[in-house]
Every structure is written in structure tokens, then in C-alpha cells.
Amino acid sequence: MTVTISSLPYELLSAILEEAAHLTTQGNRFTYGIDSHSSQRILRGNAAPDALRWYATDAIRSVNSQWHDWASQYALRTLYIRRWRGSERWMQSRELDIIHGSPSKDVVYRDPYLLLRKTGDLFRKYPALATSVRRIFFDGYYSTETSVMIINILQYCNRLEIVSLPWTMLRYGSEDDWSHILNPRDNGTVLSSLELLAVDLKKVQLSEPARQKDDKTLDSAKVNLGYLRRLKISGTSNLSPIMDADLVAMSRTARLVDLHITNTTCLTSQGLLALVRASKGTLRVLEHSPLADPGSKDPKLSANYWGNHMCKEIVQCPQLRSLAICLPTICSDLFPGTSNCWMGDVHVKAGGICKQAAGSLETPVDAQPAIFDILNSARRFMQTQQAKSIELNILISL
Hints:
- The longest helix is centred in the C-terminal third of the chain and has 24 residues, at 364-387.
- A 10-stranded parallel β-sheet has the order 1-4-5-6-7-8-9-10-11-12. Strands 2-3 form a two-stranded antiparallel sheet.
- It is α/β, with parallel strands linked by helices.
- The chain has helices at residues 10-25, 49-56, 58-61, 65-76, 114-125, 127-130, 144-156, 169-172, 175-182, 203-206, 244-251, 269-278, 303-306, 310-315, 355-358, 364-387; strands at residues 78-82, 88-89, 107-108, 135-139, 162-166, 193-197, 230-234, 258-262, 285-289, 322-327, 344-350, 392-397.
């Protein structure tokens, strides 16, 4: 019996093709147009990872239908759709090796939303390609117009697992849009990870009336975060930023396994605590790294503003494994007993000692007993985990 590559089991064939595609991308970090056999070279800059995968599977796609399907799934597995920034100018020389003179004054216009438009057109014309997408990343699209384009693209990605969206989608997307994104699909798949990225906009963008829209979709009963396993919120914005009220609304249905809140100044423990409590029985990874210093004198970061005793709230998550958190105050209650399963590297940053543990701290000497108590509790907990053959390292910054 003759054995050909096409007769191999699909898993083995897939491994061979993936290795071939990977080797093709080695050393080719630039977009098409660089031809070592031609005297004229055109350098357009670094290529995105998804573009490299697409070009690397050109030959594979042309073999047969099975290889074409595999190549499409490989190339479209992860998409990075970024807004075009900058400008292009014609070079006066045709050779990169010998460039004489400065660029001409002729500016080459490029539609900043071209990639978004073309992706939508491609999926609309060939919806089968969209079923290969597992993760999609949108960056730089903050208008109501682009929000509609993003929703249209997501409607075709019926096997999507991870999506990264601009925070404005929470303001401009309707309750039906978010219901379609978050709820299980007809084929039984569901979105498992949601990332929201916020940035500051320019002043001229802030003055546009259309950007002041807020549909308050999180208040709708149709928006259900119960199927999400991972939520990441990063950054802050000068336009309708994500606030504690948004996290409280999310906590109504959230049952998270991973929660990451980083590089933000607009969220306090009111919102964080709401999500932690809602996901108490399922939370395994918790990361909270705000931009503000926990020891800041800003009244918004005072212990009274944070309100609840966060140490005991965190300990009440029995499934918690990984922790990196920034708190205004801590005490020995943060380091649990034998019922918790922390492991790996745990980072805790705090601005002071909890009132429950320290009482009145008039001088640094008054804080020493509470600090020793915190350190001893952390050591005992590490020893307990070590006895279970679990490696645990705790870094405390006060």
C-alpha cells in the first residue's frame, strides 16, 4: 500500500504543515515587495503576525481543498485589526540601497479604516473564512461608525473565543449587539475571554457630539457575562471611562475565572469587590494593578473610600491560585490558612496597615507589631504550602 502525505492522519498532517508554515516565516519579517532577485526593492515595514501566516501558507492553499481549509484556519486563527496611523510619502529614489535626496512632498492618502472595511467585506463575501477566527484584536477604532463595523465583523465569527475591543464598544454597542457577542451561539460555542482597552483621546475628538453617546447596555437583562471565563480591563480614558458602576453592573451575571484590571485610575475596590464577590466560587487568577500609588494622599484612595476590608474578601475565594494586587492597606488576614491553594509568585503592594490590625499609628514604631504579624503570617502560609509540595513565593511592598 502506497502511503502519501495526504493519507496521513489529520493530526500528523496538521503538525507537518504547521512546521512548514513556521519555517517559511523565519527571516521574513517584512511585507511583500522585497524581492532579492529584482533590482528594485520596495520596503513597506514590519508585517503583522497574521499577515506573515497568510503569506506563509500561499503555496499550501493551492494544493487541494483539504490543505486550503487547513491553511485558512491556520492563517485566520488570530487577527490583528489596527487602525492605520501616520502617512506615506513617495521616495525620490527607486533603490533602497542608494537613497539620494529627501522624500517628496506628495502625501499618499490611506483610509485609516481600510483594514476594518476590507475585513468586513471579506467575511460578508466568504462567511466560511470567518469560522476559522478564534481570537480577534481591534485597536484604534473609537467612533460610533467603527463600532458598527466591528459588530458586523463579529456577527460572522461564530467560533470566536477571545476578543479585544475598545472600551467605547460598551457605550456605542446596543443590548442586542452585546447579547450576540456574549451569549452561546447556535453551534454551541461561546466567547470565553473579553478584553477592554481604554486610551485618552485628542481634544478635537472629545468635542464631537456623536462620541457622547452611551446606551448603558450593561444595565440590560439581555447582557449576560455568565459564560465569560476571563475579563481584562486595561487603561483609562478622558471620554466615558469604565467606572465602578460598570463593574457593579457586570457583577450581576459574572462568574469569572480570571480577572485582570490594570493601568487604570478610574476604578476602586467598589467595582473590584463586586466582581470578586460575584466570582467567589470560581475565581482562580486575580490581578489588580492601578496606575495610582496605593500610598497616595489622594482622598479617593483612602481607606474610608475603599470602605470594605479587602483582605478577608480575597481570602474567601477558595479557588484562587494566582494573585497580584494593589491595596490601600493590608493586614495578616490577607494570608489564609490551610484551605487556600495559592501558588507561584504572589505580589502584594499596599500603602499602609489596616485599621483593624493596627489601631492608632501615630509613629513608625507603632506599626512594627502589625508589620511583623503580616510577615509571620506570610511565612507560615508559605511553609504550609511547601509541606504540600506547592511552591509559593510572596512579595510584599509597603
